[in-house]
Design brief:
Fumarase C, Chain A, domain 2; elongated; 3 domains; Ribonucleotide Reductase Protein R1, domain 1; two-stranded antiparallel sheet
Length: 430
């Protein structure tokens, strides 16, 4: 049975012009745009630009779309030219067909691709970022629990991958918790820039064909529809048509988060190396066979997923920054790739955070005895002894330890440099 097509000629032209074997415009972007169309329909009625009957029909059509009934009608490739006119008209045409309204004269009254699309992306990004921040909070809370659980497990600290000074496994996990807290703050700061929209700017920012009454009402309605109370117009609407830098700010902050997550994942992979030939201070739970040929092999798959997430997000971030730089004069013409990259980024990071928490960090097993063994065999205690014995004496102790294979503890006691009680007091971390 042939599908009932609700879109019109401009959408069909887009399908001919941009036949990319690529995914369609993501539904989060479409739904945000439909919310704006709903708000605009109400605002246009209140401003006297369309009558109540048409406004109500547009609102009903938008509500039906937001229920997911017509997802198959939004067919434009995510990769297309024209600053997003293709997806904008796809939305206008579907709403127009469902409501019996004209896609341009009614559905698009007081609007332009150039203010609707950036505003839609900001709405979608706010919703996705807030969801992602909840997932980040969850990971932070698990790292906090682990830091408390492991606070008494002494282990070797390392710099340059070399033995450094003693620390605790709890301290390491606590540092990861606080790194992520700072990342959260950066994202929250960037989020503030997304609350300011250029809706009402129309073509280039001077609000041609958009009455003041419409602009006032459209923000009131949009706040209610989206449940984002912070939404407000930019002080200079033209600045929002000509610059896409706000999207660079949020993508940059999310990329920094992923950079830190990848660093943490690399640390955990290093600490979990083994089980016999590596560090083995922690173990990940086996989630799937680690090899098609090596029986019993366990790989740190969740940590590796985080590393690959960072590599992917770095590429998306670069695309966003370069596309933003491609804004010409009064228009950010490269918005389609910004929208696709940013929404994809936020969705992937949200998923990655949850699986890393649930199937990675929560399931980590601390190998207490292995931590103790490596610490005792190392030269890490040396720094704790220098205030008492002096740098030169301890240097000789370290050299003897390395050459003989004896532990620092054993050399100190053999040479009677300290009593066992004195030594134990000095080696306790405070």
């Amino acid at each position: 049975m042939k599908k009932n097509i609700l879109y019109g000629p401009q959408t069909k032209a887009s399908l001919e012009n941009f036949p990319f074997d690529y995914h369609k415009v993501l539904k989060e972007f479409v739904y945000a745009m439909v919310m704006i169309k709903k708000a605009a329909a109400i605002a246009n009625y209140k401003a006297g630009k369309i009558d109540k009957k048409i406004s109500d029909k547009i609102v009903t059509a938008c509500d039906e779309i937001l229920k997911g009934k017509y997802d198959d009608q939004f067919v434009v490739s995510a990769h297309h030219g024209g600053a997003g006119t293709s997806i904008h008209m796809n939305v206008n045409e579907v709403i127009g067909t469902l409501s019996g309204a004209h896609p341009n004269d009614h559905v698009n009254a007081s609007q332009s691709t150039n203010d609707v699309n950036p505003s839609s992306l900001k709405v979608a990004s706010i919703k996705l970022t807030r969801k992602m921040l909840k997932s980040l909070d969850y990971l932070i809370s698990v790292f906090d629990k682990k830091s408390q659980e492991y606070k008494s497990i002494q282990k070797l600290g390392r710099t340059h991958f070399q033995d450094a000074v003693p620390t605790t496994l709890g301290a390491e996990f606590g540092s990861y918790r606080d790194i992520l807290k700072r990342d959260k703050k950066r994202i929250e700061d960037a989020l503030n820039y997304l609350f300011e929209l250029n809706l009402g700017a129309t073509a280039i920012g001077n609000s041609i064909n958009a009455p003041k009454e419409y602009i006032i009402h459209v923000y009131k309605e949009l706040r209610l529809i989206t449940e984002i109370n912070e939404l407000k117009p930019l002080e200079n609407l033209m600045s929002g048509t000509s610059s896409d830098a706000d999207f660079c700010h949020i993508s940059g902050a999310v990329t920094i988060l992923c950079n830190d997550l990848s660093k943490i994942a690399l640390d955990l992979r290093f600490m979990s190396s083994g089980p016999r030939g590596g560090i083995g201070e922690i173990s990940f739970k086996e989630l799937q066979p680690g090899s098609s040929i090596m029986p019993g092999k366990v790989n740190p798959i969740m940590a590796e997923t985080i590393n690959q997430t960072y590599y992917l997000i770095s590429g998306k971030n670069l695309s966003i920054h370069q596309a933003a730089e491609g804004a010409h004069m009064e228009l950010g013409v490269m918005l389609p790739i910004i929208a696709d990259s940013l929404i994809t980024m936020l969705k992937i990071v949200d998923t990655a955070l949850n699986i890393f928490t649930d199937r990675g960090i929560k399931m980590i097993i601390a190998n207490k005895e292995r931590c103790k063994e490596l610490l005792e065999r190392s030269t890490a205690y040396a720094t704790l002894l220098t205030p008492r014995l002096g740098y030169d004496v301890v240097s000789k102790v370290v050299k003897e330890s390395v050459s003989t294979g004896k532990t620092i503890r054993e050399v100190i006691l053999e040479k009677k440099l300290l009593s066992a009680v004195e030594l134990e007091k000095l080696l306790v971390l405070k």
